[in-house]
Amino acid sequence: MLELLQQDFVQNAFMVGTIVAIVTSVMGYFVVLRAQAFAGEALADIGFAGATGAAVLGISSLLGMVFLTLLAALGMGALGERIRGRDVEIGMVLSFALGLGVLFLSIYAQFGTNASEGVGILFGSILSVTRSDVLITLFCGIGTLLVLGFLFRPLLFASVDPEVAQTRGVPVRLLSIVFLMLLGITTAETVLVVGVLLVLALLIAPAATAIHLARRPLTSITLAVALGLLFTWGGLILAFVGTGRHLPVSFYITTLAALSYFISIPLGRLRTPRHYRDLPHPTREHIAVKSR
User: Fold this and answer.
1) Does 211 or 1 have the greater pLDDT score?
2) Cys-Cys link to 198, which of 30, 194, 231, 247 (CB 3.0-4.6 A)?
3) What does the pLDDT look like over 139-170, one tens digit per residue?
4) Of 138, 237, 137, 239, which Cα lies nearest the Cα of 192?
5) Closest of 48, 96, 58 to residue 195, by C-alpha
6) CA distance 69 to 234
7) Contact by Cβ (8 Å): 74, 80
8) For the domain with range 2-203, which CATH number is right: 3.40.50.1980, 3.50.50.60, 1.10.287.3510, 1.10.3470.10?
9) Are 198 and 54 in contact (CB under 8 A)?
10) How far is CA 68 from the centre of its chain?
11) What does pLDDT average to over the chain?
12) Which residues have a Cβ under 8 Å from the Cβ of 57 and sit 6 or more positions away?
């Protein structure tokens, strides 16, 4: 393992995995709180077209995905409450985006190169991350965390009770737009690790598991970050030195994430006290006593 850590691709994998795990865990807490898991998946599917289109143009797939996911997030945020109840329209847009991504991927393959770029975008390519990808991810991650730290209290208020927050003067609509744009950037970063099809593993599982086990926001976020790092580092270590070292890293990460989530459900029920108990039915003796 020590010899592997001296390899550049291993160092890049651990660095980008650490950055993505931290950012997605913090963002994931608000995604779960705001019930916007579908938005994360939608942005990932739309970003697939941006990534493959960027590959055709010969530029970074990460930059192409960030650009298109930001545009999509801006549009979704501008619609606000009007986006609800439009599952058919959203589904058509997503299917068109995936079809566009497949078109770009086929064009990319026809230029004499292979389709490994598209496979990496779909299922993750953390072992092929370059140092420039690490730097881009680092800058985007720092910017995302800084904005989240600045908006933490109003965003938490608007996520828990948007109607009351709006009456108190909190700019709920603006916060929604900013949050979706941050989610778009985070989704683009996550694709480097687990790919478009498995993006929810790091975006949802750590935060959802932490919410089952903790109640305070800061405690839940801290636990989510720890779990995200555990999934990512554990997946990388299992891929490098585990018994199935030829299996993809994304498989290990998603497996660890799924197992932890399902284990946390009964654990959360055990540690949650019953606030309400069924009152005993009044007997005839009790009724007679009260009537005296």
Assistant:
1) 211
2) 194
3) 888 998 999 999 999 988 888 888 888 888 88
4) 137
5) 48
6) 29
7) no
8) 1.10.3470.10
9) no
10) 17
11) 76
12) 64
User: Quick one: tokens of 157?
Assistant: 């208020």
Q: Distance of CA 253 to CAs 90, 202, 225, 231, Å?
A: 28, 8, 14, 5
**Tokens for 99?**
């079809």
* Nearest of 213, 210, 205 to residue 270 by alpha carbon: 213
Q: Domain locations in the chain?
A: 2-203
DSSP 73-84: HHHHHHHGGGGT
Instruction: Using alpha carbons, list the distances in angstroms from residue 136 to 11, 53, 80, 144, 147.
Output: 15, 19, 30, 12, 17
Retrieve residue 12's tokens: 């890049």
Q: Is 142 strand, coil or helix?
A: helix
How many secondary structure helices (H) and strands (E) does the chain include?
A: 15, 0
Tokens (6 digits) for 109: 């393959």
Q: How far apart are the first and last CA of the chain?
A: 81
Q: What are the distances in angstroms from CA 161 to CA 168, 172, 174?
A: 11, 10, 15
Q: What is the pLDDT of residues 269-279, one digit of tens each?
A: 776 655 444 44
E strand spans, the chain? none
